[in-house]
Amino acid sequence: MNNNYCDPRLLVPLKEFCFKINDDWNSGYYWGPFLPYVMEKYNESKVKTFFIGRDTRAWINEEKYGSGLAYLKNLYDKNNLNQYLVANSELNPYDIEKWNNNTSAFWTFASKLYLSIITKQNYYSIKIQDYSESDMGELKGIGYGNLYAIEKKDSLERENFGSNSWEDIYNHGDEKKYYHIFNTANDILNKYKFIAEIYSPKISFCFCWEYNDWDKYFEGCSFEWLKEYSSPDKCCVFKVYFQNKVSFIIVTKHPSSLKYKRNEEREKLMLELVRVYNKLVVL
Question: What pLDDT, on a 0 to 100 scale, did the predictor assign at position 234?
Answer without folding.
Answer: 92
